[in-house]
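Example 5.3 — DNA-binding transcriptional regulator, MarR family
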Amino acid sequence: MASDLFDDPRLTAMGLLVEVYEGVSARISEVHAAHGLSGNEFDVLIRLARSPGRQLRMADLAAQTALSTSGITRVIDRMERAGLVERAACPGDRRASLAVLTPSGEERLAADVPPLLDALDTWFTGRLSAEELDAFLTGLRKLREVVRPRATAGADAPDASPADPA
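Solution (predicted structure tokens):
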């Protein structure tokens, strides 16, 4: 029967995922906006802050954020004008450039994260037990490997490390 087709739990899972994503995104967008950030800008800042040397190759940053190369260039241009990031030459590849988190970018991120964590506790992860959150994270990582295998590109690349300051 057709109704069985429409009641498939896979459709329900996808629908719930979209509903939760959109609902949580709307709540956290307000937090980011209060700190002068868009969701993409937050995504760039947090990925740089969690990367070795607080920097990533532009191509790896594009892969991690699922933005196109031109999309990440536009975001970095805007963030560079705001003093949140800067570009640097990649020591391991003269054709590539790095996006580097600036102290101003780190300060902006540090101001955004505490209220963001409060919002996430209220609207998302705080609704799950520690065991549920662990299982949820495990499941999301498993799915991400299939749909976005380059989502952690450059996160541990040795040639993305800062040059020796000596």
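Remark. DSSP finds seven helices and three strands in the chain.
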